[in-house]
Design goal:
Chain A is mainly α. Chain A contains 13 helices and two strands, in the order αββαααααααααααα. The longest helix of chain A has 33 residues. Chain B contains 15 helices and no strands. In chain B, helix 4 packs across helix 11, helix 8 packs across helix 15 and helix 9 packs antiparallel against helix 10. At the A-B interface, helix 1, helix 3, helix 4, helix 5 and helix 8 of A face helix 1, helix 6, helix 11, helix 14 and helix 15 of B.
């Protein structure tokens, strides 16, 4: 950690001796490097697009799996399968699925009478494409939601039935409050994970087209290992760390408003 | 009332089936493409189900690049990671949970605190450190860290240890057993399910890890599967069928493992979310 902090303040290309330059690297990444802000913007866009959608879909799936239907186990297994796939493999696989001419997704769109979409080849659609791919990988989040749902005492749900409540009332007044700590956990874990976006753009687009999928970590990687600017890259890592901390803190602080811990109730 | 319930059940099934299809279709497409020649893949209209299976792709995987080598490397690295994770995490968790020493609370919070620290932030310092030791392009940077524990596992084992009565270790202590003996003879047998979770998750982490091999390995003969797959992709010509076959071979052990040890997956995932 100390070494990293020191390096972030040096100008160093790994070959010569490091030169101490103070906070200059930090000033430089914010003023001179236009791509730096762009990469932050891309990463945040990706995070705020994929985390809420994934959580909503995962919660929906968990609710379905928690209902009294036969064959739940089979569906749970199927929903979990995508989470097993290494990111490299899913990147390669989706690269092929998103293919403009020969990809399966555009084939379905054509079948439905819609126009082909340039998924990862267009500056507008590339981040949403990566988000779709990320949402597909839903198993972990859903399994955690499901375990949370199974921890909800049935007497509370029966009380709603006795009072003549509908499913919506159960969801709104029993399930959601009792599940809120699990929602918080899933949210934090996923936001941190999304901010680290690297492998997908590295494999699929290399940050393109025109840097529209250049993620924060990919930019750090490029600076460190492509351009050999270790000092700059290290300074960026620190910015990423602080950004991650700030976002997690904001989520934690605002969570007091909407999470409910059974132990706290008066 | 009754008809409404049946209607609801049909709706639930419909949604579940749609979800299942969305989850499975990409995997189907992967396997379908791995069994086709490149010409057939680039034919319009698309051939959804290949009429004949081209198994040649699975042979080409091994001849085009040293894929068997990648497999062996991965198994090697994974094995050491599992051994390291099992030993180190159990010892650290035991120390934190059972042995009274000064600064124990602080040590515990520090190790749990690293859970919040994203791995990618430490990448460059780690790289510089191993570079300084002169061990880049060896398997050491990929295996040694596992012997120093992992916050997620430590926390999980710590929680599990608290459910084991202290009387067991105290009885062994009275009989003159040392800490390593207590851990090996008393604690380990009781912790088998939790240790299985550690082993399985470490297997997954290491098998899927892309970043560390990318940083630390330059020599193609040392590649693991995760970065080995990338060698098929090139700007000029990508043999898609072979690439898909390689991808299928990479995920095969994971899927087999999952079906054998499914219940450990669920317990490993939920322990952090619910008890934490």
């Amino acid at each position: 950690m100390g070494l990293s902090l020191y390096t972030s303040m040096t100008q160093w290309d790994m070959l010569s001796k490091a030169q101490f330059v103070g906070f200059q690297n930090y000033i430089r990444i914010f003023t001179e490097d236009k791509l730096f802000l762009k990469s932050i913007q891309n990463t945040l866009y990706f995070t705020f697009l994929s985390v809420p959608l994934q959580m909503i879909i995962a919660l929906g799936g968990a609710l379905l799996l928690n209902s009294q239907v036969k064959g739940k186990g089979v569906f749970r297994t199927i929903f979990y399968l995508p989470s097993l796939i290494p990111i490299v493999v899913s990147s390669v696989m989706w690269l092929w699925l998103f293919n403009y001419q020969y990809g399966l997704i555009n084939y379905f769109l054509n079948l439905l009478g819609a126009d082909r979409v340039k998924w990862i080849d267009s500056t507008k659609m590339v981040i949403p494409s990566l988000a779709i791919m990320n949402i597909w990988n839903i198993g972990n989040v859903m399994v955690i939601f499901l375990a949370g749902l199974q921890g909800i005492p049935t007497d509370l749900l029966e009380a709603v039935d006795i009072d003549g409540g509908r499913y919506w009332h159960k969801f709104r007044f029993v399930i959601l409050p009792l599940l809120s700590p699990v929602i918080l956990y899933n949210m934090i874990v996923n936001v941190i994970k999304c901010l680290q976006l690297f492998v997908e753009p590295y494999i699929m687009t290399n940050g393109g087209p025109v840097n529209s999928s250049l993620s924060f970590v990919l930019h750090i990687y490029n600076n460190a290992f492509k351009y050999g600017k270790m000092g700059i890259a290290n300074a960026m890592s620190w910015v990423l760390f602080i950004l991650t901390m700030i976002i997690s803190l904001i989520i934690f602080k605002t969570s007091n408003q909407w999470t409910f811990y059974e132990g706290d109730k008066q | 009332m009754r008809s409404r319930r049946i209607g609801a059940a049909i709706g639930i099934y419909l949604l579940l089936v749609v979800g299942a299809i969305i989850c499975l279709v990409p995997l189907f497409w992967l396997i379908r493409s791995s069994l086709m020649s490149t010409e057939n893949m680039f034919k319009l209209p698309l051939i959804l189900f290949p009429r004949e299976f081209r198994l040649q792709n699975y042979v080409d995987v091994f001849t085009m690049v040293p894929f068997a080598r990648f497999y062996a490397n991965t198994v090697f690295v994974v094995t050491f990671n599992i051994i390291g994770a099992l030993i180190s995490n159990l010892m650290i968790a035991y120390g934190l949970a059972r042995i009274e020493f000064k600064g124990r609370k602080l040590m515990f919070s520090l190790s749990i605190g690293t859970l919040m620290l994203p791995a990618n932030v430490q990448l460059i310092p780690l790289f510089l450190e191993w570079n300084w030791f002169g061990k880049v392009n060896t398997f050491l940077p990929l295996t040694v860290p596992a012997f120093f524990g992992n916050a997620f596992f430590i926390f999980m084992l710590y929680q599990f240890l608290r459910t084991i009565p202290r009387d067991f270790d105290e009885a062994a202590f009275m009989d003159g057993a040392s800490y390593p003996v207590i851990i090996a003879r008393v604690i380990f047998p009781l912790m088998k399910p939790a240790m299985a979770v550690v082993a399985i998750f470490q297997f997954m982490f290491t098998w899927n890890d892309f970043m560390s091999p990318l940083l630390f390995l330059n020599d193609t003969n040392k590649y693991t599967l995760a970065i080995g797959i990338r060698t098929f992709i090139s700007t000029f010509y990508t043999p898609w069928g072979v690439l898909m076959a390689a991808a299928t071979l990479t995920i095969l052990p994971l899927i087999v493992l999952f079906f054998i040890a499914q219940r450990y997956f669920v317990s490993g995932l939920t322990i952090g979310g619910i008890k934490g």
